[in-house]
Design goal:
With 292 residues, the protein is mainly alpha-helical. It has helices at residues 2-7, 13-21, 30-63, 72-76, 83-94, 102-107, 114-138, 152-182, 191-201, 205-211, 217-243, 248-273. Helix content is 68%, strand content 0%. GO terms for molecular function: small GTPase binding.
């Protein structure tokens, strides 16, 4: 019995006196106090946690340094693009529309080198392979013809395509930078954006180089004219807003050089890789009169 009396709840005398003096007063139970305390602690904890996270974010952002030129992370940003973006940019280069600037509507401050690199690489191999096949189909009916792969065409195609896709936009970017310092009205894209525009503009030549295998001269030249018109339109619509505010002579000179180099690449590839033999040399003979 003594143990059970000790376990019973005993009211304090002071609490009883207070309740007797003020019977209308309200009391707060221990559970309610604990709940209020728990809620207050939780809210303060969340505020402190958010403050700590914001401080850490600011600290990390302040200490973060741009990647070095010799690191892999520096070049990784140039290839930060997905398949849908590359396909959308290829479609934009194949179907240029007036009023749609390629840099503003397709690149959107995120130029890449992934698409231009593979477009140029694919074009190199399609030119070389199509050129070899064209030579083979042209001389296939000749009994004295012996086919030998012309691997040097891969090297020539690579030098021509990569030099055009790298050196020409570099020269144009340098010229626009110089004109921007001389004439305040002239603007300029970044070097990466300029290279990206030139790289995607060559995508139309990939199907054209395959269709050049059709041994019809007028059709081949029609395909060249179509490809030059489409790809040249991409360049004109992209760079025209930058150079139109320059002097008339400078504007005409830039457009003429850009289109002339573009046409020179297409015509040169057609004449070199898909040229018809001018002479059919007789096969060499031995002294006994037999052909080799």
């Amino acid at each position: 019995m003594a143990a059970s009396d000790q376990l019973r709840f005993h009211e304090f005398d002071e609490a009883a006196d207070l309740l007797a003096a003020t019977p209308d007063a309200t009391t707060t139970s221990v559970s309610e106090r604990q709940s209020h305390v728990a809620l207050d602690v939780g809210s303060s904890y969340d505020e402190n946690e958010e403050g700590d996270e914001s401080d850490k974010t600011e600290l990390l952002s302040g200490q973060k340094q741009p990647p070095s030129f010799w690191t892999f992370e520096y070049y990784q940003a140039f290839f930060d693009v997905d398949t849908y973006q590359v396909l959308d940019r290829i479609k934009g280069s194949l179907l240029p529309l007036p009023g749609k600037n390629f840099v503003r509507h397709y690149l959107r401050n995120n130029p890449d080198l992934y698409g231009p690199f593979w477009i140029c690489t694919t074009l190199v191999f399609t030119l070389a392979i199509s050129g070899n096949l064209s030579n083979f189909l042209e001389k296939h009916g000749n009994t004295s013809f012996r086919y030998s792969p012309q691997f040097h065409k891969v090297t020539i195609a690579g030098v021509a395509i990569y030099c055009y896709a790298g050196l020409v936009p570099l020269a144009l970017w340098g010229y626009l930078q110089w004109r921007k310092g001389v004439c305040l009205n002239v603007a300029s894209y970044t070097l990466l954006e300029t290279v990206c525009v030139y790289g995607y503009s060559l995508s139309v030549y990939i199907p054209a180089s395959v269709l050049w295998l059709i041994p019809v001269s007028w059709l081949q030249w029609l395909l060249i004219a179509t490809a030059m018109t489409l790809s040249g339109s991409v360049l004109v619509l992209t760079f025209w807003p930058l150079i139109r505010l320059d002097s008339r002579a400078a504007t005409l000179a830039v457009l003429t050089i850009v289109l002339a180099l573009h046409a020179l690449l297409a015509v040169g590839c057609k004449l070199y890789f898909f040229q018809k033999p001018l002479h059919d040399y007789p096969p060499p003979f031995l002294k006994d009169g037999r052909a080799v």
